[in-house]
Amino acid sequence: MPLELPPTFAFSQSSLQSFANCPRRFWLAYVEQLSWPAIEVAPYAEHERMLKLGAQFHRLVERAEAGLPADRLTDGLDHPLDEWFENYVHHRPADLPTEFVEVERALSVPFATATGQYRLEARYDLLAVGGEGAQRQAVILDWKTNQRVTRRSVLQQRLQTVVYPFVLVEASVGLPWGPVTPEQVEMRYWFAAAPTAAVIFRYSSDLHAANRARLFPLLEEILSGERQADFPKVPDTDENRRRFCGYCVYRSRCDRGIGAGDLEEIADAEFLDVDLESALEFRLEEVEELAF
Ligand code: SF4
Questions:
Q1: In the structure, which protein residues have their CB atom closer than 6 angstroms to any atom of ligand 1?
Q2: What is the pLDDT of residues 96-121, one digit of tens each?
Q3: Which positions ≥6 away from 222 have C-beta within 8 Å?
Q4: Architecture of 13-249+263-286 per CATH?
Q5: Is residue 270 predicted with pLDDT exceeding 60?
């Protein structure tokens, strides 16, 4: 029997990263779709605040990219949102292509397996495309509001760095500014905490082939599961409890402790695969609208 996923489900970097970190987490979040039953980090209130500010930052940038004057957007911003936005205003990369600029754009590509048709989706904070012919350049920009810059080696391993350029190249065939070759694509992580030092990954045909070879077996592996037992918990080691379970909302259900991980540790421990912005993806609709 094929794995039962919601009819509208599309694989994303978040769901794939969940599976890579802990197959059981994927099962609970995406197959059973359990809401978040436990507090993910301590102190809870501060964690929630940072997540909401991160989501508000994305909405502010979206408005600024749409052409609203920055000085009309800055009134009454909480700290550190005011500082993040100030950094965006003064240090938005100046060398981005300007011909096509798309904000909060979702793209997806179909893929077929023995059990059915699925989609792989990427949601881009900003796509900037320009130049003609061989000079065409497509830049993927991802805004990050983590308190510290994530190490390049950690970003390189993240499935976001794999999925985003892969989907862009594959989907670009059907887009007005496409197609683009892998060599014409680059991915940049821009950190509000270090706005002049974006972490840049150039893409290439070799990487595209390697990403395909990584993604499709991973997707097949997920889709070969049928029941919860096929999605085991991450092995119960001290390191895994610290890296994953301490920040996972399902830890009481999994009997992996009741104490939450520490927010300060997330900021300090760069190896942690916790993305503060996507951690609360099921609750983003609860983020209050900004009053403009
Ligand atoms: S608590 Fe640990 S074992 Fe359970 S789903 Fe979360 S990461 Fe996996």
A1: 22, 24-25, 28, 233-234, 244-245, 248, 250-251, 254, 256
A2: 999 999 999 999 999 988 778 899 99
A3: 3, 11, 16, 19, 23, 26
A4: Alpha-Beta Complex (3.90)
A5: no
Ligand 1 atom closest to 251 (CA): 1
| Ligand 1 midpoint to CA 14 (Å) | 15
* C-alpha 250 – ligand 1 centre gap (Å): 6
pTM assigned to the model:
0.89
Q: Give CA–CA dist 280/50, Å, rounded.
A: 11
| Bridge partners, residue 213, by sequence | none
Q: Which residues are within 8 A (CB) of 55 and not within 5 positions of it... i.e. 6 or more apart?
A: 277, 284, 287
Q: List the domain boundaries for the chain.
A: 13-249+263-286
Give the nearest ligand 1 atom to 236 CA.
3
Contact status, residue 214 vs residue 158, Cβ threshold 8 Å: no
Relative to the CA of 245, which ligand 1 atom is closest?
A: 2
